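Reminder: ligand-aware prediction takes two inputs, not one.
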Amino acid sequence: MASAAFQVEGALDEDGRAPSVWDVFARRPGTVRDGHSPAVACDHYHRWEQDVDLLDRLGVNAYRFSIAWPRVVPTGRGAVNGAGLDFYDRLVDALLERGVAPVPTLFHWDLPQALEEEGGWSARGTAPAFAEYAAAAADRLGDRVDRWITLNEPLVHMVYGHVFGVHAPGRTLDVPGALEVAHHLLLAHGLAAGELRSRGLEVLLTNNYSPAEPATGADAGAARAYDALHNRLFTDPVLTGAYPDLSAFTAGEVPGVREGDLDLIAGSADGIGVNYYNPTPVTAPDEGSGLPFGFGEVPGAPVTAFGWPVVPEGLGRMIDLLRARYGDALPPLYVTENGCSYEDSVSVGGRVADPDRIAYLEGHVAAVEAARERGADVRGYFVWTLTDNFEWAEGYHQRFGLVHVDHGTQRRTPKDSFAWYRELIASRTGGQSPTASKGPLS
Ligand code: BGC
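Here is what comes back for the chain with beta-D-glucopyranose:
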């Protein structure tokens, strides 16, 4: 099961937390659909015990959550806020008491605003600041948490936040500017990996992956360009020590790369987190878009409330592609996010029927299992997400949870998919506590 701090916690001003780029961005008119505010989100900061109980009922043996950098190091670098770490300390203990392995992500897009004001990810200095924060978090939790994720979906943060400007920090950089952001994110990952590994901890990098499939034979070049951006930009440097061919985007080199950077980034992951939602059918570029590709549709595929095509085999194809592409350099994989949004509502009887979500998850779990049978080393599967939460620019409109949340009352109602997933886990663990099982993390 997976979640992220800014999407669930609320309590943005409590216990010494300072604003993140998302606090500031979401206050700007027009940035979040219907002006929804993240101030309370799922109130998880106060209701975390209830949420941990839900995880316990579900029977998962691992929980991926994110630590909010602006709670731990409110000004981005320098003084560590002990009260911020206390929250995660309590959460980790409560998870462990229930036999749930805590898997924290250090950066799920909530950069301290103080760093943004110094240039954010365009500034090289943000990378060592991230490593300092990683060290502080590991010093507090590393005695109980052994597997850490550095960054969540740096590509999405770069493209949505720094090129299209539809996510925080809302910047609209050109291609070289965006690639410089990418490099600093990778450098941050590499430096943080050094800190974590020096403490004997395991390091994962989580990327969003989507098989880029030519919608027609004539679109192969466009699909290659999209693949380089979406699937390779944040993976090739880590697994091969080099940037992919980015000639469809720029004639120049990736800016900001200094001697030694790629050596530090190479080999810096003990596992790769795969977030998968859908494949991307690629067409020839749309005229005037300025992009070297266009987007098509998957004929006949059902779509989620977000309009994303449901193609479970796409996850299997993506795993196969990663194996074929990187061979022995590919470390173990973890599906760190997979899920779907639908317009769920609570019926008069208090039930939330979400058959489409059950079908989605069933198909994707089967796709992972089939990939494992083909030889893939996939060691975990995390559903996105426990509770309906703040879905970034969509506000509370997209419900991804296995638990419905009434955002007026904060009432949590497990959906049918919750019962289905609990059954699935119980059937795999022989009805015993999931800790007794040697099965994959779920
Ligand atoms: C992100 C999550 C997000 C989910 C659904 C991923 O891109 O990591 O934060 O809620 O997809 O959009």
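The longest helix spans residues 175-198. The chain has a mean pLDDT of 96. We will return to this case in the review session.
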